[in-house]
Write a structure and sequence with these properties.
Layout (H helix, E strand, L loop, with lengths): L1 H20 L7 H10 L9 H16 L4 H12 L4 H11 L7
């Protein structure tokens, strides 16, 4: 019986270690900028650094409880362009992939 308990304990420990070492979603500013370029959703008159910063602002606002639809409208109003849907989608996919709103 002790051998069986050791096997079960070893298997459980291996499972926990495996979960702890599993890759997690990470922000990818390069892919974010690529997606904006492909979809023609670049913020007008903004540098790459400013666009990435705006994307992180979008992530922060989504995490704070702003709805996706409201954030789309906020982005369009804030930056005076009509691609808020694409911008928020690219932000949440590439800069805050852990956001599940």
């Amino acid at each position: 019986m002790t051998s069986l308990l050791r096997i079960v304990a070893t298997a459980a420990l291996a499972a926990v270690i495996g979960m702890a070492c599993a890759p997690t979603a990470a922000a990818d500013p390069g892919s974010f900028l690529d997606e904006l370029t492909i979809n023609d959703a670049w913020l007008p008159g903004r540098s790459a650094e400013e666009v990435v910063a705006a994307g992180y602002t979008t992530c922060d606002e989504l995490r704070s409880g702003v709805s996706v639809l409201d954030e789309m409208s906020n982005v369009e109003s804030r930056y005076l362009f009509d691609q808020g849907t694409l911008f928020v989608s690219a932000s949440s996919t590439n800069l805050c992939p852990d956001f599940a709103g």
